[in-house]
Amino acid sequence: MRSMPPSKEGRQPLSDTKNAPEMVNITINGIQHEAVAGERVIIAAEKAGEYIPRFCHHPKLDPVGKCRQCLVEVEGPRGKQLLPSCAIYVTDGMVIDTQSDVVKKAQKGVLEYLLINHPLDCPVCDKAGECPLQDQTMTHGPGESRFVEAKRKFKKPIPVSDLVLLDRERCILCDRCVRVADQIAGDPLITFNERGNQTQILTFPNEPFASYFSGNTVQVCPVGALTSTDYRFRARPWDLEITPTVSLRDTVHSNAEINTSRGRVIRVYGATNDHVNDGWLSDKDRFSFGAINSDERVTTPLRKTGTGFEEITWADAIDTVSARLGAMIGTEVGSIGGANNTNEEAYALSKFMRTVIGSPHVDAQLGDGFEPQLAAAVIPRAKIDDIDAATTILVWGPDLKERLPVLYLRVRKAVRNGANLVVVAPTRTGLDAIATHVIRYRAGSGQDVIRKLANADKSMTAILETLAEGPVVTLFGRTSIAEDPRLAESVAAYGRTLDGAKLMPLLQRANVFGALDMGLAPNLLPGRISTTDTDASSHIEETWGPLPDALGRDTAAMLSGAVSGDIRALILVGADPVRDFPDPQAAEKALEEAEFVVAIDAFVTDSSRHADIILPAALWSEVEGTVTNLEGRVQVVGAALPPKGQARSVIGMLNDIATSMGAELTSFDVSVVSKEIATVAPAYQGITRDGIVFTSSGAGIVVPSQEAEIIVEMAPRYASMAPDAVPTEASGSAVIVPAQGTQPLGYIPTDQAVPMVTDRYTLHYAPAMYDDGVITRHAPSIADLVRDPTVGLNPRDASILAVANGSIVVVDGSVELPVRIDEAVPEGSVVLPFNHAATKGLQAVPAVTVEPIRDES
Amino acid sequence: MTSPIANWSPENQERANKILATYPEKRSAIMPLLYLASLEHNHASNEAMCQVAELIGITPSQVRSVSTFYTMFKQEPVGKYLVSVCTSISCHLLGGNEVFDSVSDAAGVGHNQTTEDGQISVEHVECIGACGGAPAVQVNYELIEGVTPDKARALVEWLTQTTPAVVLADEMQQLFGGQRSFDWGPAEHAGAIAPVPAFGPYGSAGGDQ
Ligand code: SF4
Ligand code: FES
Ligand code: FES
Question: Are A35 and A90 in contact (CB under 8 A)?
């Protein structure tokens, strides 16, 4: 277990904290200013409008005072002293001079030193044009050097990982990359070596900087020493066009900017939204844009032929789709997907299905999530900022490091600042090393853990003591696709009983929370309305016209309906159920049996290859609109490029299909659709794309929000929807009150222990960060980072099966993989990577057989 | 899980555990553990650094960051006797370079090199704190002061021929040394048994012999 050095600055003051920070008076260059007590002088000065040059200082990293570029004069008992302003803290009455001759001489001197060994190869350096060293040499540098000796020489560049290259000659030893790796990512795999004359950043031999966050070091490096393999020599910063957006590689929606050059996405950089990502991105956020430029994109509508697909015109495609769908009864059509789209697209799909087609069968989840009402409307819902404020954090869901990496960073930060962390999962997670308590359980027996916690079982005493230290934020979700989704409901119900409880639902796919909020679930209507809430439905019907009466089917029921014949047509919207649905064979069969399948997709996938018509979909960076993250924060995604080829936004194609069917759907203009959402969907009352752009100063707005501009008055009941509405208890059993109505938890912990499966191994089946997903597969930079698949077994089970590390076993009679013996795998369980080429086709069932392959000779 | 130092000698395993127990913060044990690891592996090899990292709970890269700062943690294998000749200012002025040349010539290898039989490594080093007795030489960090080029040659030959199990400063000073910087005080009995400083608790000292 790696120990984590505590943060030197203690708990960060929260942005929305009620106790205002203590203010003190300081003097900067003869002018009085107010500053936050204990703040770094360099930050206080910046707020006061005095920019002090710096290299090693970074507001999100502990100060090190390494580069000395930020020297200022501070009056002390022994007269004025030159001190590094990034490493000293504001005190009352401090007198600071940032402009004196002494300071200027010091800054010039430091720069002259820094440039002694710097190769000055700016003409061939990626950083030139956005290089702090270049800029500050211009503004604060001496302009000439007295150094005539030979500079240090190093081999350039050397790879420190598959994604990052290091040019040691350019390095100014600011320690930023080392601190990002250590303090932020928790992967201290790059350090200063050969300290002295030859000080250099290096990895340990044969231990590359294999961090999920390595790209951040490239972004924070103040010179061109760290560059990314996929950007190196591709563009000059002054040629880049910048489009602000958020990443859709998971549901955190880390803020980012898309850099394009000559019509291609060339780089993705992190942008800072302190409520969401602190400026950090995961490498998946950063390096998967290659898929957008992929030559394998579907760029024209395609029609299935006997042998494959033929290209057809949009007019032909629209006619075919509308004719086929128009010939069916509404309830014979279902749509699966929509989680990879914007809110506006999801809204258009929801409206299209329910009004134009007349079908309630919509589902943005692929049987891999949990109860949509709970996910969309859990109360009291935690914001990401609440993680910073929590005394205790309970994580019981997917491995954050693998699935929601930037949220993992946030939890890490909170723990570093002193929060307790309790991690519950069947096997090892990325957070275990810094957890106060780790509970592991045999996959499938999570209910036992809840029962023990709820009944204060003796084995839980220490953990319960920690959980008693509120406020407690509970992050809940499914730990694996083989886990009963109702467990997440129980975890939420348990989490709600804890002191100062706040709950954060963990679904992982792109904009799935936005899709649910737009009603892409069989039991949800736009704006977090339950389909059974007649009052609210009638509000929506005012704009939409009558809603279908029938009960909606979820993805599983649609797929089985396609086999039984109840469902005749399926619309796949950026969905690949053959890969993502827990029972891939059932999904494949359904797509084969369905009378008509239309896939709105950017690639021919294992699912869309079964479609009769494929409509080319625009991808992230090609559509603008709003999206909603896992805390309910609505933010804006930008279009940096036109869609590739003839690809289109879903709104456009659905509008055309609707028109061709003689109906009217919505506007083609995203801003107008966004306004329609703001008037129709209660939780989104007043939240428009334009409003977010102009009023939220880039931070986005968490819905429901009272601060939103009121466009139309809604019924008082919805107008008063409070984000922090108090949950109620009803008739003895735990009840969660979503925005409207009540939602009983389906699965309450019982007093009975979970029956033991003894003849098989219970399955823990979860994807890693780099999985075999369609985007990862088509992004050249990260496609090769998929880890080799293994079957994780407990040492006891390995000895029972008489297998060693690397022995091949057969799982469920179908998948052959090498064994990895691991104490972190509970006895009686088996750990497999989901959505991996090697496990393709293996059904996510609660328990599987594992048989060694015996040598038959 | 087997300990990362399972293949170490039982004495050194015990020493490692004792060292770890001494420090409230495990990380503080990094330097003594690196000496121990060097003793086990002859130098601070990658393997040794990985073992130390695992014992302390940090990454090998972090260990290497410490280990490469100190020239006395050797990155490459060294011979049984490490002969270090000071060529810093005082020694340089009094013929340190000539002493080095003579050591190098006698051993047949240059700076940072080891004889083929793995007996002797030669290096020139920065000031070893014996300026008053310049030029100074160390064998496995045991000091000899006032060494002449001829004595240096004799020293190397003595090492090659007698291959002492323990090298002792007092003894070598008597045989090959000259002017001393100061009175060394009572005779030392513990010399070094390996190219690691003679630390009793780390088992690198020869003991009373
Ligand atoms: S590589 Fe860049 S970030 Fe890292 S120490 Fe050098 S200059 Fe700083
Ligand atoms: S910015 Fe202050 S020392 Fe580097
Ligand atoms: S200069 Fe040689 S010992 Fe000081």
Answer: yes
Between vectors from CA B175 to CA B169 and to CA B179, what angle results, nearest 5°? 75
Number of domains in chain B: 2
| d(C-alpha A250, C-alpha A284), whole Å | 9
Contact check, Cβ <8 Å, B60/A188: no
Identify the pLDDT of residue A249.
96
Task: Tell me which chain B residues have a C-beta less than 8 angstroms from the C-beta of A2.
Answer: 57-59
- The Cα–Cα gap between A393 and A440 comes to 16
Range of the structural domain that residue B38 is part of:
10-67
Tell me the three state secondary structure of residue A447: helix
Q: What is the mean pLDDT of chain B?
A: 93
pLDDT in tens, A781-831: 999 899 999 999 999 999 999 999 999 999 999 999 999 999 999 999 999
DSSP string, A635-682: EEE---SPPSTT-B-HHHHHHHHHHHTT-----S-HHHHHHHHHHH-G
Pick the CATH number of A761-852 from 2.40.40.20, 3.30.565.10, 3.40.50.970, 3.40.50.300: 2.40.40.20
Q: A490-506 burial, b for 16+ CB within 10 Å, e for fewer?
A: bbbbbbbebeebbbbbb
Pairing outcome for strands A302-304 and A613-616:
antiparallel
The preferred substitution site among A55, A83, A133, A140 for testing ligand 2, maximizing ligand atoms within 8 Å of CB, is A55
Q: What is the pLDDT of residue A7?
A: 54
Q: How far apart are CA B65 and CA A479, in angstroms?
A: 37
A193 has a chain B CB within 8 A of its CB: yes
pLDDT in tens, A587-628: 999 999 999 999 999 999 999 999 999 999 999 999 999 999
Spacing, Cα A44 to ligand 2 middle (Å): 14
Q: Which residues contact A76 (CB under 8 A, 6 or more apart)?
A: none
Tell me the per-residue pLDDT of A725-734, one tens digit each, with 9 for 90 and over: 433 333 222 2
Each residue of A385-425: pLDDT tens digit? 999 999 999 999 999 999 999 999 999 999 999 999 999 99
Q: What is the ipTM of this complex?
A: 0.92
* Ligand 1 centroid, distance to A257 Cα (angstroms): 22
> Is B61's CB within 8 Å of A202's CB?
yes
Alpha carbon of residue A317 to chain centroid:
34
Ligand 3 in reach of B93 Cβ (< 6 A): no
Q: What is the pLDDT of residue A12?
A: 44
Burial class (CB in 10 A: 0-12, 13-18, 19+), A534: exposed
> Which CATH number is correct for A373-505, 3.40.50.300, 3.30.930.10, 1.20.1250.10, 3.40.228.10?
3.40.228.10
User: Which chain A residues contact residue B49 at CB under 8 A?
Assistant: 204
Chain B partners within 8 Å of A191 (Cβ): 59, 61-62, 64-65
Beta-carbon pairs below 8 A across chains A and B = 47
Report the relative pairing of strands A309-311 and A302-304 from DSSP bridges.
antiparallel
pLDDT band at B203 (very low <50, low <70, confident <90, very high): confident
Token pair in block for residue A207 = 């231990």
Contact B65 A196 (CB under 8 A): no
Using CA coordinates, name the residue in chain B closest to A188: B59
Q: What is the rounded CA–CA span in Å between residue A342 and residue A336?
A: 15
A806 contacts A849 by C-beta, under 8 angstroms: no
- Looking at residue B66, its amino acid is V
8-state DSSP, A789: P
Per-residue pLDDT band at A490 (split at 50, 70, 90): confident
Token pair listed for B133: 């007795």
Q: Do B65 and A203 touch (CB under 8 A)?
A: no
Which pLDDT tens digit goes with each residue over A272-283? 999 999 999 999
